[in-house]
Amino acid sequence: MDDVDAVTRAVLTASRLLVAVSARSLAAVEDRVTLPQFRLLVVLCTRGPAKLVVLADRLGVNPSTAMRMIDRLIAAGLADRQTNPANRRETALRVTDEGRRLVDEVTASRRQEIAAIVERLAPEQRSVLIDALTAFTEAAGEPAVLDGDAGLHPLGWLEGP
Known about the structure:
161 residues; mainly alpha; Arc Repressor Mutant, subunit A; two-stranded antiparallel sheet; 6 helices
């Protein structure tokens, strides 16, 4: 087996673990939001208020799908509509304080579980992991999360596929 296959297998295994960690962090709020609705909240938290068409584009879904999701989030008190004072025909969709708290809660849970796993590694393993993951994400063109921005991209998904 060549090294590309070995690395691919290791990344797929790590990916399975990270998906499981993300799923567990969402399990605590699954009675309130679905994964697609949570993704919408993440986009609103990271990118700010947006018109429906822009939001649908960022999520890579049809506007009608985005509208159904946002309607459910509004009913749950996690998002709302805001009329543009400069053009009363325009409506921006935004996350509420409660919606932001929900995203922060899920993100903190995920971060805590990942930190517990990392703490089990020896310091030299952590250093190697930092280098390897940095190289991997740079090769994919993924922007780095800076120390002060730990919650900036809680689950990725900034733009559509």
